[in-house]
């Protein structure tokens, strides 16, 4: 699970912000190119979503093995 979440983090931050930026800049969100938006704000939203997913999944695993508080 950790490797998968870290891979998503890498793809969003490095991929969408740097590698895929020329392609993403063809599209606009709020008057700004999509590549710029991902580099500045979109990746933060994805990171927050990953944090919430990680905590939800870890609580589920802890309950399954009777390790919760």
The low-pLDDT segments are none
Helical run tally: 3
Order of helices and strands: HHEEH
Helix content: over 70%
Radius of gyration: 16 Å
The total beta strand count reads 2
| Major sheet strand order | 1-2
Question: How would you sum up the major sheet?
Answer: 2 strands, antiparallel
The total domain count is 1
Q: Give the DSSP E fraction (strand runs of 2 or more residues).
A: 5-15%
Distance between the termini: 22 Å
By helix and strand content, what is the structural category? mainly alpha
Question: What is the fold's blueprint, element by element?
Answer:
Layout: H1 2-19, H2 21-24, E1 28-29, E2 32-33, H3 34-64
Antiparallel strand pairs: 1-2
Pfam family, one: DUF4212
Protein name: Sodium:solute symporter associated protein
Keywords: Membrane, Transmembrane, Transmembrane helix
Description:
The chain is mainly alpha-helical and 69 residues long. The protein has one domain (2-64). It has three helices and two strands; from the N terminus they run ααββα. The two termini are 22 Å apart.
